UniProtKB/TrEMBL annotation:
This is Uncharacterized membrane-anchored protein YitT, contains DUF161 and DUF2179 domains. Keywords: Cell membrane, Membrane, Transmembrane, Transmembrane helix. It comes from Thermodesulforhabdus norvegica. The keyword Electron transport does not apply. The chain crosses the membrane at residues 12-33, 85-104, 110-129, 149-172.
Amino acid sequence: MKKPELDFRSLLSNLFLISAGSIIFVMGMNSVLVPHRLLSGGVVGIAIILHYTMPFLSVGAYYFLLNIPLFLLGWYYLSFRFMAYTAYGMLIFSLLASLIRPPVLPMDDPILAALMAGVICGTGAGIVLRSLGSAGGLDVLAIVLNRRLGIRMGVVYTLCNALVLIGGGFFIGMEQALYSIIYVYTSSRVLDAVVAGFNRRKLVLIISARWQEIVDFILHRIHRGATVFRGIGAYTGEERTLIMTVTTMTELPRIKEGIFSVDPEAFIVINETLEVLGKRHGRYKVY
């Protein structure tokens, strides 16, 4: 009896994220990006170029028309759930882009305008991507090409954005295209921060002969979980113990200090994580 409630809650949550992110993106696009004749990447960028050159249709209308073939492509190759959310995102974004007309933010410096647009639009795009869908555009094309041809999504985004900016430089002006690079870079960095979260976790791998003391320190002093693996040194052939834990940036100095106070000869590897999901089960496991 509880599963429909959880599914309904998930549905409302994802629709809210798509709607809120679309509103924020449209606010930045219509108050900064378009009034200052800057360009964007992807399908939004093509829609903006078409609006600049043929202004009888809004950016939202062009965006909707451009997304129709992409939506049909995704409907054939991708999951029903993802495309259902994407259909909603595509419709709500196109509608909001045509209806929302916020006041133009007055900025004389195009670099400041590009930075401001990047912060606002990147935040909106990041919120949309935290849902289980998208607002259409390059997301659909990138996923399809990745699954069917093995092309990395980053390559698709980079290539398409570059082509859009080059085309914009030809039709709108090279100076505006160069300013728009600042917008694309800023929005992508902000988007990454929103998707991954501002409190990004660190994955710490520790090899030590005094692993039990280090595990106790992590569990009882840092209050973090840990997983212990058994391995063999490739050169010596001796058995080694590997500890894995996930921590925050603020806790990382304490962990390093505690590890080396226990074992000055410990070997530590620290990796950046994009996202950490799931719940911790038990105190620690040995594999």
